[in-house]
Amino acid sequence: MIEKRATQRHRVFKGGTVTFEGSGVACTVRNISDRGAAIDLETPGLLPPSFTLSISCDNFVRHCRAVWRNGRRVGLAFVQ
Known about the structure:
Radius of gyration: 12 Å
Largest sheet: 6 strands, antiparallel, barrel
Organism: Bradyrhizobium manausense
CATH class: Mainly Beta
InterPro entries: PilZ_domain
Distance between the termini: 28 Å
Domain PilZ: 3-79
GO molecular function: cyclic-di-GMP binding
Number of strands: 6
Shape: globular
Number of helices: 0
Number of domains: 1
Pfam family, one: PilZ
């Protein structure tokens, strides 16, 4: 597989929250970099085009957009 990412992602296993339209959905953050992340969601089909990812244990909050989906896993790009 050819790596297309501009920055290397680091494997993690952290609980996170995706928030949109006034509600929050729990997720598991599987990897992360300065530009994006991959998360697992129980119901990825409900994810809107843009949303916020929070990882409370790290005081981490980023606005995101989904760039790919594969089953329960969703690839995110952080919006600058």
